[in-house]
Design goal:
single chain, about 280 residues, alpha/beta, Rossmann fold, 2 domains, five-stranded mixed beta sheet, about 35% helix, globular
Length: about 280
């Protein structure tokens, strides 16, 4: 068995899942937000990392809104960074309705974050009366279009090799168009957040995303890392599905395949042939 398969299979710490909420005006520090959450020993669900900005417009905006709302339902806590915008207001409302704890943070000029009290929050294009009305536990859904989406989508962890990194947006698009929410590791952690946090911390985050996902969807060739993610989900009794993309079609499309059609990455010199593990699929 290769060293990476062993590494991916070992039991890691289960951390809190943190939904990070912040204004689109603060989109530019999205990586810093994820770094801060990871360094605190938690796993970030960061919508502006996972979906970029509405997945660059390749899917209907309503799909992303439903996906965002669905993610909040799976968070242990919601952390607000910076000013409370109209979108942040809706996310705080959804968290409070589910009795999910909400915490607030401010970014200083040196790029550091510090926790603040709810009373010290700054509002951005949000009426103070509406903010207070929401904090009093009142229903604000009639005033906010995002709160009119009552459905939720199941969560899917897309497992794929780093060699297929270039397909990340296509994979998320496919998941959203099939009414599931991708917890896309290569988007969520942007290739390990530029190595600004320990690699093991990111692996723990990946494992936690696999844990909260309803299903794991494997795209294209199975690498040793993907095999470890499949094992983790199967140990939980979860469902794993397999898909292959067809590059001769435009746009790129995926089709579900059986385990007998799954291909494995060619092993590097000295590694075992992953074909030997087909029975674990």
């Amino acid at each position: 068995m290769s060293a990476v398969v062993k590494n991916q299979s070992k039991k890691r710490q289960v951390n809190k899942i943190i939904f990070t909420s912040y204004s689109k005006r603060n989109f530019y520090y999205r990586a810093e937000v994820s770094q801060y959450v990871l360094r605190g020993g938690n796993t970030p669900i960061n919508p502006y990392m996972n979906f970029d900005y509405n997945l660059s417009g390749v899917v209907d905006k309503s799909l992303v809104r439903v996906a965002n709302n669905s993610l909040i339902a799976h968070a242990d806590e919601l952390w607000v960074f910076g000013e409370v915008s109209d979108g942040v207001l809706a996310e705080v409302y959804l968290a409070r309705r589910r009795k999910i704890p909400v915490r607030y943070f401010r970014r200083s000029g040196d790029g550091m974050f510090s926790e603040i009290q709810q009373s010290d929050v700054t509002l951005e294009d949000v009426s103070s009366w509406l903010w207070e009305y929401m904090l009093d536990g009142k229903d604000i859904s009639r005033w906010h279009p995002r709160l009119r989406f009552y459905k939720e989508y199941p969560l899917v962890y897309p497992a794929y090799s780093k060699h297929n990194f270039y397909l990340q947006m296509h994979i998320s698009q496919f998941c959203l168009e099939h009414h599931t929410v991708p917890l896309n590791p290569f988007l969520m952690f942007r290739y390990f957040i530029g190595d600004s946090v320990p690699r093991e911390t990111v692996y723990e985050g990946n494992d936690n995303l696999v844990r909260i996902a309803d299903e794991v969807w494997v795209f294209d060739e199975v690498s040793d890392g993907v095999l470890g993610e499949v094992r983790n989900k199967k140990k939980q009794g979860g469902t794993v599905k397999y898909f292959r993309h067809y590059s001769d079609k435009s746009p790129i499309t995926y089709r579900r395949i059986g385990t007998d059609k799954v291909q494995f990455e060619v092993p590097r010199l000295g590694d075992e042939d992953l074909e030997d593990f087909r029975g674990e699929l």
